[in-house]
Inverse folding.
């Protein structure tokens, strides 16, 4: 969701970039507008920026800002309240050091937060989430974050889900966050002899040590992300009963999907694309909707859902 788009939209940003540059040709201005807005917007902005708004002057086909100062985007009260809430989240320490958080807190000391985190009750989240305040957790997270940006190969030791000690050289690709488990994990490539040996997912909380190897990789990770994408989307139907459609759209907002709503039946049909490593979690999240959601295809995924439901029924029958 573009929280502040109504205040500082793409049009504001496009015009700001034009006014911050010097000695622009008309084609340069159009290029800036096209890059920051929709292609047809240049027709609207170009016709007004010079003659109506009088923001730029033109001489021999060269455009420059009439402003004495470079335009800036001061924070609105809404933005300040939002930032105040974000930095109070325990996960903020993973991305910002104590000094930065302290400085922001001091600047916003008279600002009321937009929301308080203790106001939210997560009834569908596991209680054994990661300890985001753990110094080692923060240190490991930041080392991996830096390695992702710089394509650095790290030697990582961790305890697997089967309680085995694992140690390999990894090229971290990207972070993943599970709202259901409240845990971070990193998608990484196992590197051996300078080549990709395998792919893996490491829970940050299971890492015991990280060592910098001083080696960097030129492997293109974009293709790896594509290879982990499912070959066939999950197709579901969601009824409007008990606000099912609204809840579904919020729950799966981060997923790539195509949706279609039938006004007559009040049923939403959706195709969901996902990372293959997220299949189990996706299944659990879909089943949590109960009877308002039906998994239509593929058949193997329907079978996984059926097996899981049968196991749950058997468990309750034997224990209650």
């Amino acid at each position: 969701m573009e929280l502040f788009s109504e205040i500082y939209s793409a049009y504001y940003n496009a015009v700001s970039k034009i006014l911050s540059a010097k000695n622009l040709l008309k084609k340069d201005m159009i290029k800036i507008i096209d890059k920051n807005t929709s292609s047809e917007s240049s027709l609207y902005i170009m016709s007004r920026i010079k003659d109506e708004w009088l923001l730029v002057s033109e001489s021999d086909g060269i455009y420059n800002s009439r402003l004495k100062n470079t335009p800036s985007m001061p924070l609105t009260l809404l933005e300040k309240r939002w930032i105040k809430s974000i930095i109070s989240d325990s996960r903020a320490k993973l991305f910002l050091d104590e000094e930065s958080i302290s400085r922001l807190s001091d600047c916003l000391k008279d600002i009321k937060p937009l929301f308080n985190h203790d106001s939210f009750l997560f009834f569908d989240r596991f209680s054994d989430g990661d300890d985001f305040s753990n110094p080692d957790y923060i240190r490991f997270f930041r080392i991996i974050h830096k390695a992702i940006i710089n394509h650095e190969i790290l030697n990582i030791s961790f305890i697997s889900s089967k309680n085995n000690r694992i140690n390999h050289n990894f090229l971290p690709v990207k972070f993943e966050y599970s709202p259901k488990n409240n845990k971070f994990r990193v998608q990484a490539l196992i590197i051996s002899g300078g080549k990709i040996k395998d792919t893996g997912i490491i829970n940050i909380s299971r890492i015991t040590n990280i060592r910098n190897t001083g080696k960097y990789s030129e492997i293109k990770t974009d293709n790896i992300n594509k290879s982990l994408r499912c070959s066939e989307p999950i197709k579901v139907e969601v009824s409007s009963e008990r606000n099912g459609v609204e809840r579904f759209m919020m729950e799966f907002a981060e997923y790539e999907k195509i949706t279609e709503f039938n006004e007559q039946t009040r049923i939403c049909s959706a195709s969901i694309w996902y990372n293959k490593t997220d299949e189990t979690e996706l299944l659990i999240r879909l089943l949590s909707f109960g009877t308002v959601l039906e998994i239509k295809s593929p058949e193997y995924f329907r079978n996984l859902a059926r097996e899981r439901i049968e196991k749950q029924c058997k468990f309750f029958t034997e224990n209650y």
Remarks:
- Confidence is low (pLDDT under 50) at residues 1-7.
- The longest strand covers residues 165-178.
